[in-house]
Write a structure and sequence with these properties.
The chain is mainly alpha-helical. It contains ten helices and three strands. A three-stranded parallel sheet has the order 2-1-3, with no helix packed on it. Helix 1 (about 1-25) packs antiparallel against helix 6. The longest helix is centred in the middle third of the chain and has 25 residues, at about 80-105. The two termini are about 40 Å apart.
Length: about 220
């Protein structure tokens, strides 16, 4: 059981890693498509890498949502394969051993619980159906609540360039919000733009001027 679980997990992660390496954010967007707010889903996953670095792979499998996003995120950030494999190897093994150990140690309790489910019969079926309906309603409400964030206003490059060349240029501020794994501090940046950290938005926003029109560009 340990071997089957571990190998299946590792193979799946390696496939996601290489897919993320080739497709970049595209795969992350697909995986987050069912989320109430896809952009928040991606940023929340990336934030674990920002704060804890590559060691995120050691415990990512224990966190719902992050477990799926971590391998393609590592690939899209061009993490070296052997480094990824080493950390993911340890994470997958730890996850497999932990859950099998929990199952083994609590086998009597689980057996009693399953017997209770069988005895309850239709009552348990009704509870599960109600729980599913409640969850479905919750997801619909969340989807409607965050629907406004799915449409991001955009501006054409030529239009912004024309404004920067006009007398109104002093009222324009361009902000570089590229994600941590894609930002190179020594790389090229749009002239006169400023850099803010997307994983520290609450603090960064306080320093932005309110009298200017702010244009963002990302990865």
């Amino acid at each position: 059981m340990i071997g089957i679980s571990f190998v299946a997990m590792l193979v799946g992660d390696v496939i996601l890693y290489f897919t993320g390496r080739v497709s970049g954010w595209a795969l992350l967007g697909i995986l987050c498509r069912l989320s109430a707010n896809p952009e928040t889903c991606i940023l929340r996953s990336a934030e674990y890498f920002y704060r804890r670095g590559k060691q995120t792979l050691l415990f990512a499998k224990f966190i719902p949502g992050i477990n799926t996003m971590a391998p393609p995120l590592a690939g899209s950030m061009k993490m070296r394969f052997w480094q990824f494999l080493r950390l993911d190897f340890a994470g997958a093994l730890g996850y497999t051993l932990t859950y099998l150990a929990v199952g083994y140690l609590s086998r009597d309790f689980l057996a009693a619980t399953l017997r209770g489910f069988h005895a309850a019969g239709r009552a348990m079926e009704a509870v599960l159906v109600i729980a599913f309906v409640v969850y479905a309603i919750y997801r619909i409400v969340q989807y409607r609540k965050h629907k406004v964030y799915r449409v991001v206003p955009r501006i054409q490059v030529q239009e912004l360039a024309a404004r920067l060349a006009s007398e109104d240029a002093s009222h324009v501020l361009i902000v570089d919000v590229r994600s941590h794994g894609y930002y190179d501090s020594g790389g090229a940046r749009i002239k006169n733009s400023i850099r803010i950290q997307p994983n520290n938005l609450e603090e960064e926003i306080k320093n932005l001027p309110r009298e200017k029109d702010i244009y963002l560009y990302c990865t």
